[in-house]
Design goal:
This protein is of the alpha/beta class. The chain is built from twelve helices and eight strands. It has one domain: TIM Barrel, CATH 3.20.20.60. It has an eight-stranded parallel beta sheet with strand order 3-2-1-8-7-6-5-4. It is globular.
Length: 255
């Protein structure tokens, strides 16, 4: 028999230790393995804006199981059936996209909890519980699963404190790309007006000891957010790294 391990990402954001992350959207375990040994604190395996399906996600979770990097999964939607399958597959945390209200946050949490606290279906033999070998799985897994909700519109920003106060929510993730779009600034996630809207909300949450995070593609900007007190910041993506490196290599060869 084995025991359910402590979630290092969740422990870190609760203790105030910043976590540096990377977005994964190439949907491939081989590229995931190339990232895994780099040593990021966490990665986000994305199902919302990538060709990932359950099998490709499981393959990437198997890769990261051999490393210290915590693999968080973003389901395509706040879908209790998909959440159940991801948790059974061993996802160490979930990032729920487009959470607009406290009720939607509560629904996300409920999808990660077994009855009577929630609606997660029960299976006794899954990858998550080492196929029935983790004797404390049912009693400990809810405390070791990171539940992060994504705030992505002006309406959600206005309700962020109520969303964050929902029992079982471990952190709030700001989506600057969608907030920018909602503000009429499509394609400008680093626009000063976008961050003028995000920062006061983030500051209010941090004052209540609520971990906050985001994704920005500018490493200097990302480092600045960590200095400001953001708990978990992704500073790039696998697809972006590959595309920019290819561009730069060709430019070097042709200039």
């Amino acid at each position: 028999m084995s025991l359910t391990p402590t979630n290092p990402f969740l422990a870190a954001i609760k203790s105030g230790t910043p976590q540096i992350g990377l977005w994964l959207s190439l949907a491939n375990p081989f590229s995931a393995e190339a990232i895994a040994s780099a040593g990021f604190d966490w990665v986000l395996v994305d199902m919302e804006h990538s060709p990932n399906d359950l099998r490709s996600v499981v393959a990437q979770l198997q890769v990261f199981a051999a490393f210290d990097t915590t693999a968080i999964v973003r389901p395509a939607w706040n879908d209790a059936v998909l959440v159940k399958r991801l948790l059974d597959s061993g996802a160490e945390g979930l990032l729920f996209p487009m959470v607009q209200t406290a009720d939607e946050a509560a629904a996300a949490v409920a999808a990660t909890r077994y009855p009577p606290r929630g609606i997660r279906g029960v299976s006794g033999t899954t990858r998550a519980n080492h196929f029935g070998r983790r004797e404390d799985y049912f009693t400990r897994i809810e405390d070791e699963t990171a539940v992060i909700v994504q705030v992505e519109t002006r309406s959600a920003l206005a309700q962020a404190e109520a969303i964050a106060a929902t029992g079982g929510v471990d952190g709030v993730f700001f989506g600057p790309a969608d907030i920018a779009a909602d503000m009429g600034l499509l394609g400008q996630p680093n626009h000063p007006d976008v961050w003028a809207a995000i920062r006061p909300v983030a500051t209010a949450l941090m004052a209540k000891n609520i971990p906050v995070g985001t994704l920005v593609m500018d490493p200097a900007f990302a480092k600045g957010l960590i200095t400001e007190g953001f708990s978990f910041v992704a500073c790039g993506s696998d697809a972006g790294l590959l595309a920019r490196a290819a561009d730069n290599l060709l430019k070097t060869m042709t200039s």
